[in-house]
Design brief:
about 0% strand, 4 helices
Length: about 90
């Protein structure tokens, strides 16, 4: 069963948030109830996103995730230095 077409205003809002605000396609898909492949099609058709752009976003997300891991490990390390946590081994 086919979905109803997405209103042009909603489509433009989604594309704007992805291009200008850094909203991830998967998050936009969930938030607006539009399949991620549809959104990628819009992006490719509008010339607003390239493979390089997708790679940069992926790397930024990976960087953010790794920074969070480093932060968590730093906190654990500091607590261990102060004797607030037992050694894990």
């Amino acid at each position: 069963m086919a979905q109803q077409p997405v209103a042009n205003e909603i489509k433009q809002e989604i594309l704007n948030k992805i291009k200008n605000e850094g909203l991830l396609v998967k998050d936009a898909s969930t938030q607006y109830g539009v399949h991620h492949k549809t959104i990628y099609g819009w992006l490719m058709g509008s010339g607003g996103i390239t493979q390089e752009t997708l790679e940069i976003r992926r790397l930024r997300k990976e960087n953010k995730d790794l920074t969070a891991i480093i932060g968590a490990l730093t906190i654990v390390n500091e607590k261990q230095k102060r004797g607030l946590m037992p050694e894990p081994w």
